[in-house]
Every structure is written in structure tokens, then in C-alpha cells.
Amino acid sequence: MLTLLEQLDKGSLWQSPGGIHPPQLKTLSNQSAIARLPLATRFIVPVPLVGEQATLSVGVGDKVLKGQSLTEGAGFTYLPVHAPTSGQIVAIEQHATNHPSSLPTLSCIIESDGQDTWCDLIPNSLEQLSKLQILDKIKQAGIAGMGGAAFPSHVKLNPASEIDLVIINGIECEPYITSDDRLMRDHSDEIVSGVGVINHLLNPQRIIIAIEDNKPEAAQAMQAALNRSNLPKGVARVTVIPTKYPSGGEKQLIQIITGKEVPSGAIPAQLGIVVHNVGTAFAIQEAIYQGKPLIERVVTLTGEQIGQPGNYWLPIGTTVADALQSVHFIESAEQKVIVGGPMMGYALAELDVPILKGTNCLLVPSHNEIAADVDEKACIRCGECAVACPALLLPQQLFWHAKAEEYDKAASYNLKDCIECGCCSYVCPSDIPLVEYYRVAKSALKIEAEEKRQAEQAKIRFEARLQRLEDEKNAREAKAKEAAAKRQANMKSTDKDAVAAAMARIAAKKAQDSAASSAPTAGSTTQVPQTVVDPKKAAVNAAIERAKAKKAAQANTVSDDEFDKNTAEVNVDDKQAKIAAAVARAKAKKAAQVNAESTVQTPNTAETSVAGTEPPADTVDDKKVRVAAAVAKAKAKKLAQAGQTDDTTVTTEPTTDAVDDKKARVAAAVAKAKAKKLAQANQTDDTVVAVEPTTDRVDDKKASVAAAVAKAKAKKLAQASQIDIGEAVSRPTVGVESTAEIAPNVALTATADSAELSPEQIKKAKVAAAIAKAKAKKLANSAEQEEQ
Amino acid sequence: MAFKIASSPHVSTSLHTNTVMKRVALCLIPGIAVQSYYFGLGTLIQLLLAVSVAYLAEAAVMKLRHKNIKATLSDNSALVTASLLAVAIPPLAPWWLIVIGTLFAIVIVKQLYGGLGNNVFNPAMAAYVLLLISFPVQMTSWVAPQTIAMNHASLFTSVQTIFEINQSFAAEYFRLGIDGITMATPLDTLKTDLSMGLTTTESLTKPIFSGMGAEGWFWVNMAYLAGGLIMLKLKVIRWHISGAIIASLFVCASFGFLISPDTFVSPLMHLFSGGTMLAAFFIATDPVTAATSPRGRLLFGAMIGVLIYLIRTFGGYPDAVAFAVLLANMCAPFIDYYVRPRSYGHRTGS
Fold it and tell me: Are residues A421 and A469 in the same domain?
């Protein structure tokens, strides 16, 4: 088994799959030496010719010399642009460029002064310069790959990995094109000296100058030049390979010379191989030894529509129109002007576009040479395209999916490995422009990938934003919690109940201060809670107890201790109890504000009914109750400020709680409104209030309606005589002595009933509550009358 | 100045679909000639009928589909389809048989699937199977080879028979061998004899097997083989499918023959009898309905070869080309999906 180097030295060749043998038609243009055309008067130099964006170092009106740099830049792949001749910059504007799309590009329009005066050139020798200086000189000369792709050469000459093999590409496999052929024949020594520079920079083990066997003169000239050169013996050699399109493709050439395949998605340098075009070697030599930047190149002007086909040195920036005109171009109908060869070249839409660094050929064919486009016919899946494909793809399958716009499926057939050589289209018996389909599919995939990438970015951004908002919210909450904790700490008590108890104590004290008359003993209050065992009832009872305790406090000078005892009992109960306690406290305040002995009864009716109706609400929802309680509390305050007669309205609210949270709130609001009205008015305005319930019906809350009705009745009753009161008094189950005591008990019985029935018969409970309320009102009215 | 813009490449070969199809049709000529020699001129009449009906049917469908009639007819695909069906059916089959078959092939199998390039099944074979199943008597009434036939059909009598003008010249009349016994095709005879307990050697003594392999059929197959080789030379077809069919059929037949020469037909008989060569070079190589990658085509061909052998040996029909091709047609997309060549720069397994 021979090593690769031995095989390279032997000139062993490998097979590249596929490929075609189109008519060469090279003799049309390679019969004469490279000539020069008269200097054109106008040049278009696109500024971002190759590589990264650069800044212009000249302005409109500036005089430039031939070879003067027009741009400045610092990027790694930046390549300067030079003035192709001496003259004046007449415009810097968007101008169509030499590209299939003819998209406008920022270009310097230079008007030649006809002198063609060079700027100062600095020739060097290899010995004078370090490798970095050589690379910089190549970069500053603006040298890009001359084979067509125009990739900045200094990048390829400064690879990250060790280079074992340099291939100098003199294949020129496209039909018609002979610029490399002529360059090798006419300037073989210069090319070899350029190869010497590459050898100096990369120090490879072997350099292969590859030439197709259809250019024997070029191969001979190169071999002779190599023999004359001072390159180390055994390093460089000329290898002639069989003519086949597309052997000149970088990947195909590597396969033919070394038998290796460049992995998909990789570059040859990863295999330790670099391929440079012969034209690039020539330009490197010019840059180092002559100091000349890349401002002109050999262009094959060929095709039957050209009077003097051949190869010409054309300054970069010469317009295609000028170039063709000076070789006697005859335009035919539906003329195609192709940049590059017939296999991979693109047709120009207009000719006022410049020759670029990668422009190796202008083909102006007659209709005999290149037939007019024919209609695409059905694919018969003959598979000839697969046989011709040098990338071993299945073009028929790619076509099938590309045409159906199933681009993901096309991608699964390795669409990206298509080198667009055109072999498939060339052999297609159905005249299908396969490469065009692949270009469309590739663009679509590219756009899709870009959109996907952007969507991914947007998603990341969105998620980051959500995270940020969440963090901010958490931070705010933490801060609020901290603040709350601080507040609580400031209050020197963490127990809410303790706070409530304290507040209750304050209220009790106030009441104590204002209390003037006597009331029933506290003894009777303790009896009531004992009759019930249910926790809810217990809570209710606790509330009632408290209320009574307050009354007691108002009546007697009950000590704080007893009050504490009551609140301690409350603490045992659940939240509801606390709420009830709070409600009770609020009412206690009201009561405190009312001084007269006789009026004590009225607040009591309000209190007891409020406390009494709460339990059914509790069974429904804890929150609702709290809300309702809070509402009730607020109203209670208002009422307290307004006057004792209005207390009755408060009683209507809690009943609604049992039905629904919303309804309850609405009802509460309605009730509140009514309470206000009542507060503002006095009893004589009751008729007005009685009208209002009709509006409640719209809200479909039976409970509130019932409450309203009850309210109205209560008021009517209140206006009635004391006989009614007597009836009401007869109801209580617990025997009592004073009228003051009747009210709480009435409420209590109603409450006890409703608490038991509430799960099934909330309505009944409500009704009962309403009745209780009504009675309470009656009592209140009677109390008033007594007062009066 | 407006210049013509076009996508590269700007050149292409001169070998177009219509040329390819025309060459296929031309390469059928040796086979048709030999077939006409042995089995009478009925084949030519069938051919004429089939081609006319095919073009008419295709033109009618193109008109209905509002497509360019001339462009479609000029691709010569209908010509090939019609020719293949015409040579596949018995030469003296009644005229309506080929008309039905051709209409079915062109209108239903080909055009209803979207025309050239879109049909799933080989139109000629799908039509053949339709006729075989629908009209088994007419489809199996092969005339006796003229070298051993009792009655010879002239062009005139052929026309009379095909168009059912004169009942005295029924197809049956021309099936009589020199011994006065109605003749079946060699494969049919063998199958019947083997099922009757005769050995192949005993069966092969019958006059139908005089000459090499089978009388007439051997030379017909040789002629199609010659036409196929010309197509290979012209690069109208690639070798993969034909090679795989012949190889797999040969391997299977040899295997059976080696195990039991008395009950299994010899490989030579398999290769040069029935429609083997016609199928291998002209029918299975229809690119539209075959697998498309080289390896896929090898698989496709091998599958046809094996199926031909299995159906001929163990199935109910003496010949099996049409069934084998249709079954393989069904598998072609499947093969194409799983058998893909390794692309450049992709190591094995990717």
C-alpha cells in the first residue's frame, strides 16, 4: 500500500463520480496570446467588492492614481478596492453590479484621465518580509480567488491547521473558458513564482499543479517553468487529469487528486488541503514582487457573436458593455450575455455592469451555440441526472420534492451538498431546469432557517421578559411582605386576634366612658351559648355573647377582664368568629356613640340580627362572609353617624350572602345606597325607599328582593302601633323581662333555625332572617316611640 | 437593451424524452419481427390497432385536460405503451381485447394518474393483467408456432379472426399443432404436465419443446434480448434492472433445478420462454414506475426476477411477468425511500 504522498508523486488519480463531457469549444478563444484592449474612459468599482464592509477613503471629485486604494478597513476578511486606472472619481452612487440579480451596490465611478499613471509601488522579495508581512501585502493588494468564487486569498493562506497539500487549480473544466489556459501558457514563470510564495507561506509537503488533458500546451509550459524555478525539488509537480466536467470543482479536484472526500459542511483545510487558482498564484506574485494590487485580470471574451474572441487583460471595473464593444460584439435577438461558462455562468440583464475579480469569462453565444429555452417536460425518472451528479445526489428526487415545495424532504436528500454544477440539467431528457429548482429550494430553506432562528430569538426574548416580570413581581411581593412584617412588629403583636382584642378593648372603654344606664345582667348572656354545640352556632353565639357583653359593658361598669374573657372565647373559634367579633366591635362603637338608655335597644337589634344572619352565609363561603362583614361594618359606621333608626337597613344585607358572592355584593351595594339615603333622610322618607326594591328585581336576586320587601314591611310596621310589638314579643322562646332583651332572642331563634336549614333551604332562612329583621325594626320603632 | 436571462446551465444534451421513447420502440422491432414470423401477422394488426387507439385516447384526454395535444403525443410514450401491450397479447385475440386494454392503459393507468411521469403502475402491464383476469380464455389462446402448426394464418385470415368476421377462422383453429392437438404455450404446457404428475423430461418431449428451449419462443426471446442490448448500447436503459431480473431468475431457477430437475423447470427455459426478455429489457425498465437509484434498481430487478420464478413455479398462472412487474411497481417508492446513495462528503451510515 502506497502512502498518499507516494501516490501523489506517482501521479495516481482517482475517479470522481458522475460528470459530463460537454463540447469544449475552447479553441474559439485560446488561439492567441492574452491581449490588451484600449483603455476605457469610465470604470465602475463597487466598493464592497469582496469581504467585510469597508469605509471609503476617497470622495467625489478626488483624483486617484492607478492602484490607489479606495477603501480602508480592519476586518479579517476585509479586502481593499483599488482604482483600476488614474483619473477622477465622478460619482459615488448605487449602481447595478455584475450579479445575476443586477442589484445596485455602492460603487465609485471613475473617469479615466487617459494617463494610466501608477501610484507608488513597493516591490519586495520574500526574504525581505516576514510571513505576516507577506500575508498583509497580499491582503492589501486585494487578492481574491480568481476562479470565480472570489474568496479573500489571505484567509486561505493563513489556515488554522497544518496544510499538507496545496493544489493549484488549472483545470478550467467549463466549456469556452480559456483564461487560465492562456495565463499558464503566457505567464507560466510568474505563476510558478506565485506558487513559490504560497509554498513559503504554507510550507506544504506537496504542491500539485492540476491541469486537464485538453490543455497540453499549458501543461508543458507549466512543467517547463517548474523545471526552471528554484522551488525545492520533489515538492511541486504538474499532474494532468482527464477532461471531464466538473473536475475543476474544488471538492471534485481533491477527490481526483487524493481520493479523499471533503466531509459535508467542512472545508478542505480540515483535510490539510488548500486549493488555489492559477490566476490567484499569478496575482500573489504580482503583489509581492511587483507591489501591484489586483486591478486587472484575464477575461475570456468568447462566443460566436464576438468578432475577435480571445483573452484580454481587463481592468477590474471595466464595464461589460465597453469590453464587448471593443471586441466587436454583434447583438442578436434574444441575446444572452453570460458571465462565466455555459454550465455555471449567469446571464446578465444589462451590460453597464463592471468586470469583477472573479469574472473569468464573458460568453456571448449565437443561437446555434446555445439553443433558445425549451419547455420543461415531465420527469420520467430516467435517473440520468443521478448518473451525472458528481455529488452522488439523486437529482430526480430533489426535483420531485423541490417542485412540490417539500423543502424539508429535499433537504433530507442532501440538497445542501449540491454544487450547482448543472450536470443534471445538462443530461435531462425532459429539459427540466433542475439547478434552478434547487436554487429556489435552497433559498427557501435558507429563509426558513433564518425565520426559525429569528423566532427562536423572539422566544428567548419573550421568555426572558416573562422571567424578568416574574422576578420583579416576586421582589415586590417580598418587599411588601417584609413591610407588613415590620408593621406587625411595630404593633408589637403578631397575633391578629390580640390586635382585635385590643381594639375591642378600646371600644369597650369608650362605651364604658359613655355608659350611664343599667342593662340586663351578664348572667343571662352565658346561658345562650350553652344551648348550642355546633361550631357555627357557637361562633354565632360567641358573637351574640360579645354583643351582650357590650351591652352589659354599656349598662354596668363591667371590667375589662370580662371582656377579655369573651374575646378569649372568640379566639377559640375559627375565622368567622373573628369576623363576627370585628363586626360586633364596630357595632359596639356605634352603640358607644349612642348615649341614651332607651336607645341602647336599637343598636342591639341591629347587632344581633347582623350576627345572627351571618352563619348561613358562612356555610357558603368564608371569603364572602368576610366581604359582607366588612361591608356591613362600613355601613354600620355610616349608620351610626346618621342615627339609630337607620340601623334596620343594615340587617338586610347579610341574608343575601347565603346565595352568591356576587349577588351578595350587589345587594350589599344596593343596601348601602339605601342606607345612605336613609341616613340622609328620616323616617318620613320611607315611602321613597320602599319604591326602590323594584330595581333589585332586575338583578334577579330573590334574596335581596325579599330583604327589601322585608325592609319595607319593617318600616311600615314601625309606623304602626305598639300592638304589633306585643305580638312580636310573644314569640321569643326564652323568657325575658325587659323589651331590651326580646330583640336579641328573636334574632337568635331565627338564626338558629336558619343555621340548621341553610344547606337545603337557604331561602327559608332568608325569609326567616327577614322576618326577624322586620321584627327587630318594629322593636326599634317601638323603642323610638318610647324615647319620644 | 433587454437581454435574455436564464438560469445555468445554458446547454444541454440533444437526447430528449421523445428520442428515448422512439429508440425503445425501434428496439422492439427485432422481437416483433421474430414474433410475427413464428406466430403470424396478427401481432402487426394488434400493433396497429393498439397504437391508433393509444394516440386517440391520449389526444382525447389531453383535450379534456386542456393540454397541448401535440407536445404530449410527440413524446412517443403512448407508442411504447401500445407496442408493449400489442406484443404481449395473443396475436389472434379479438380486436376489442386490445382496444379495451389500450384504453385502460392510456386513460386510466397513465393519464388519470397525471400522465407521463406520474403513473404508479406500468400501463402496459396493468392493462395486460386487467385483460388476463377479465378475459382469461382469449388471453391464453396463443397460436401454435408456425413451424409446428397445422394451420397457418395469413394476413387476410388474421384480419378475419381478429375482427371476428369469419367464425371458421376462430383463434382456436390456429392453435392446433401438427398433431392436431390444441397447443398451449410452453410454460403452460409444462405447468399442466407437472401438475398431472409428469416429469419435466417427459413433458419436454412434446413438439412444443422442439428446438432450443421451446419452439419459437426461444428465438422471440433472443430477439428481444438483442433489442435490449442495443438499448443498453445506446444508453437508452441502464443495465441494473435487466441484469438483476435475469440474474435473480437464473439463480432461483438453478436452485430449484439442482434440487429436483424432474419437478422444476430448467433455468434456460425460464430465461428464454414466456415474456422474460421482453419484461427484462422493455417492460421493467420503464423508468417512471421503477426504482430510481442504481442500487434501488438492482433491488427492483431482483424482486421481479424472484417474483416471476415464484409465480411461475408455485402460482396459478403459467407466466408471471405482468404480476411480478406490477408488484415491484408498488414497492418502487418504498425502495426509493430507503435505498439512497451515499452523497459526496457523507460517510457511510449518514
Answer: yes
Candidates A100, A336, A380; nearest CB to B288: A380
Query: Which domain CATH number covers A154?
Result: 3.40.50.11540
User: Domain boundary residue among A465, A490, A515?
Assistant: A490
Provide the domain count of chain A.
Answer: 3
Task: List chain A residues with CB under 8 Å of B238.
Answer: 383, 387
pLDDT, one tens digit per residue, over A439-465 is 999 999 999 999 999 999 999 999 999
C-alpha cell at A478: 417580598
Closest partner CB to B12 (pick from A262, A417, A428): A428
Residue where a domain terminates, one of A262, A296, A330: A296
Give per-residue pLDDT as tens, B287-321: 999 998 889 999 999 999 999 999 988 888 877 89
**Hey, are the CB atoms on B11 and A343 less than 8 Å from each other?**
yes
Which of B5, B8, B65, B111 is the best substitution to test chain A (most A C-beta atoms within 10 A)? B8
Is there a domain that residue B143 lies in?
A: yes
Give the ipTM of the model, two decimals please: 0.86
* Domain-located, residue A347: no
CATH of the domain at B234: 1.10.3430
Range of the domain at A175: 4-296
Residue A428 assigned to a binding site: yes
A379 is in an annotated binding site: yes
Q: Which single residue is written with the C-alpha cell 411497481?
A: B329
- Mean of all residue pLDDT scores within chain A: 76
pLDDT number for residue B11: 84
How far is A12 from A6, CA to CA, in rounded Å? 9
**Within a domain: residue B148?**
yes
How many angstroms separate the CA of residue A139 from the nearest CA in chain B? 31
A350 touches chain B (CB under 8 A): yes
CB contact under 8 A, B8 and A340: yes
By C-alpha distance, which of B121, B191, B155, B186 is closest to B48? Answer: B155
C-alpha closest to that of A156 among A82, A50, A239: A50
Q: Could you give the C-alpha distances from A309 to A222, A761, B194, in angstroms and in order?
A: 24, 109, 77
Domain count, chain B: 1
Q: How many CA atoms lie within 13 A of A532 on its CB side?
A: 21
What pLDDT digit, counting tens, does each position of A288-318 carry?
999 999 999 999 999 999 988 999 999 999 9
Express each pLDDT in A331-375 by its tens digit: 888 888 999 999 999 999 889 999 998 899 999 998 888 877 778
CB proximity A431 to B under 8 Å: yes
Specify if A563 maps to a domain: yes
User: Is A424 assigned a ligand-binding role in the annotation?
Assistant: yes
Residues A177, A205: one domain?
yes
**pLDDT tens digits along B220-230:** 999 999 999 99
* CB contact at 8 A, A210 and A248: no
CA B224 to chain centre: 10
Output the domain CATH number for residue A402. 1.10.1060
List the single residue in A262, A349, A435 with the smallest CB-CB distance to B9: A435
Instruction: Tell me which chain B residues have a C-beta less than 8 angstroms from the C-beta of A175.
Output: 11
Query: Is residue A638 assigned to a domain?
Result: yes
Residue B8 has pLDDT above 70, yes or no: yes
Asked if the structure places residue A301 within a domain, the reply is no
d(CA A252, CA A505): 99
Picking from A250, A375, A381, A387 by the largest number of B CB atoms within 10 A of its own CB, the best residue to mutate is A381
- Distance to chain B for A422, nearest Cα, Å: 5
Contact indicator for B347, B154 with CB cutoff of 8 Å: no
Is B350 part of a structural domain of the chain? Answer: no
Find out whether A418 is annotated in a ligand binding site.
Answer: yes
